[in-house]
Amino acid sequence: MSSTTSIQDAAAAQATVQGEQGSVLKVRFDYQPAARIVAVSYRLRNTADAPLAVFDRGNFHAIDTGRQKAGEVGIPTEKTEGEDVELMHGVLPLRRPSPTVPPTPIALRLEPGKEVSARFEYALKGTLAPKRLRWCVGVMRFNETDFDQPHTASQGQLWRASFAVVGKQQMLCTPWFDVAANRFEA
C-alpha cells in the first residue's frame, strides 16, 4: 500500500507525502552521484488522534550485533528494478525457513500531534548508476497487541514489533527522484 498524496515543494529536492493513517512526511534528498550516496532528511508528523508506529528504527538483531545503536535510524532495504532504486524502512515478512535470530522489527511510537525528525545516509550497492530513486517508510496505527518490550530513547518510546504488522503497515513513499534533473517527479 502506498501513500495517498504527494506534493512537490518549491525546492527541487523536497517533497511532501500525505498518508492515509494520519501522517505527513516531509522529505529532502541529497544525492551525490560520484560517491553513490543518498542523504535522506525527513520529518514525519502524526496528524491523527491516535499514536502511530513508525518502522524506521531497524531491528533487534542489528542492535545486538553492534551494527546499529538503539534509537538510531536503521539501515534501509534496497530494491533495484532496472535503473530504479527503492530504499525502504519497514517490516518485511519473516523468511522461510525462519532464521535462528530473526530481524525482529523496532518501531518508534509517535504520539498524536507530535513529529520526529531524522536523517540517514546510504551508499547504493553495485555499480549501475540509477536514473530514479525513491524512499518508503512503514507506518501504522499503534496498538499494544502487536508490540512489546518498550524502552525510551532520545527520539521517544521504542517498541519491539511482531511480524504480524507486515500486512497492517502503510508504506509512505516519496515520488520518484529524477537523478539527472536533481528533483522529485511531479
Quaternary organisation of the protein chains: single chain
Number of strands: 15
Radius of gyration: 16 Å
State the helical fraction.
under 10%
Question: How would you spell out the order of helices and strands?
Answer: EEEEEHEEEEEEEEEE
Distance between the termini: 20 Å
How many H/I helices?
1
Beta percentage is over 45%
Question: What structural category arises from helix and sheet content?
Answer: mainly beta
Mean pLDDT: 89
Characterize the largest beta sheet: strand count, sense, and whether it forms a barrel.
10 strands, mixed
Low-confidence stretches: 1-11
- Shape designation: globular
Write the layout of secondary structure elements.
Elements: E1 5-8, E2 14-18, E3 23-32, E4 37-46, E5 52-54, H1 60-64, E6 77-81, E7 84-89, E8 106-110, E9 115-123, E10 132-141, E11 147-153, E12 156-161, E13 170-173, E14 177-178, E15 183-184
Parallel strand pairs: 7-10
Antiparallel strand pairs: 1-2, 2-3, 3-4, 4-9, 5-8, 5-10, 6-7, 8-12, 10-13, 10-14, 11-12, 14-15
Please summarize what this structure is.
Helices cover 3% and strands 47% of the residues.
Can you characterise this structure?
The two termini are 20 Å apart. Helices cover 3% and strands 47% of the residues. It is globular, with a radius of gyration of 16 Å. It has one helix spanning 60-64; strands spanning 5-8, 14-18, 23-32, 37-46, 52-54, 77-81, 84-89, 106-110, 115-123, 132-141, 147-153, 156-161, 170-173, 177-178, 183-184. A hairpin with a 4-residue loop joins strand 2 and strand 3. The protein has 186 residues and is mainly β. The strands form 2 sheets. Strands 5, 6, 7, 8, 10, 11, 12, 13, 14 and 15 form a 10-stranded mixed sheet that branches. The protein has a 5-stranded antiparallel sheet with strand order 1-2-3-4-9, with no helix packed on it. The model is unreliable at 1-11 (pLDDT under 50).
